[in-house]
Amino acid sequence: MPKTSRGPNMQLIGKPAARTRLSTPALILDLDVLEANILRMAEAGKEFGVGIRPHVKCHKSIAIAQKQIAAGAIGICCATIGEAEVMGQAGISNILITSPLITEDKIFRAVELSGSDKGLCVVTDHPLNAMRLSALFKQAGRRIGVVIDIDSGMQRTGVASQKNAIELVKLVHDLDNLDYRGVQCYAGHVQHIENTERRQEAALSVMGGVKVLCEELSAIGLSPAIVTGGGTGTFDIDGPAGVLNELQVGSYVFMDAQYNRVWMNSGLTPPFDVSLFVQSSVISSNFAGGVTCDAGLKHFAVDGGVPVIARGAPGGVRYEYRGDEHGHVTFAEGASKPDLGDRMEFIVPHCDPTVNLYNYYHCVRGDELVDIWPIDARGL
Length: 380
Description:
This protein is α/β, with parallel strands linked by helices. The protein has 10 helices and 17 strands.
């Protein structure tokens, strides 16, 4: 396929009812819902008095990042230097890379990116990493903003104690070519707690620790300009808590089955609507009570359970993985089954890693295919 191609559905852009005619499996993005979600989060940031710094690890898309910035985002987060390079090359600035860059090759790439993005920041959680950052940026004659990563209880990355965090802040403040900017604390393990009270308790406990650290840093003249963290599952808890001044929200643009359960299992309506779907076609219908579709293990991230039917089948259906390329949809007794070739659309279990399985978003408004966007930072 030519490099200029946007996949097998290009010829359907602008054609009537193109959404029902796609070559599948296809990743579908409802632009009306996407844009409403972006505006809703922007309004929440204004209400809470915090900046929105969306995480592009979710969507890996220049076009979506540009929409977020147009709606008022103060910058973006990237999980990797590869994502940051893609966004930086597109003219997006004020990038925060939220995972430590350890190896020299990755640090040199950050040095290069800092030439075009004067607002670029990286995180560190270890003195040896801070000293390497200092040495390599000094060697290049450039400076870099540094944010200290604090462990929230996940034990993934982050300084493990308040004492060590303060010592690392002091070190970064004193090292050549490093500009101490603030602290980061992301409580990923809290985002999907489905009980509202327990999620709020856990999130506020994390915020309490960050508040104490910020007070201790202020007392020694090292008040953090950036206090960043939070996520989609706790945006409405962390935002009003009065500790963070940035929210690193990501999945709100799409939503998925995991995040829907966070609110729905407590009897609440999710604050954002689903904009992302995988469309699949029925390819076999030889057995009673079910059909086989062409979306299997290769088309959904499987860490969040199974996809949820959104369109093209009656309620009460159940999806099962039946191999790399196949899924089986079981229908209630007496329910009308779709015909061969009929399309079904699924809410994905976990949006971020599902997106990374695809090359393109098929952008729709209603049943019209209005554009096809590349997933620019896929695999990076």
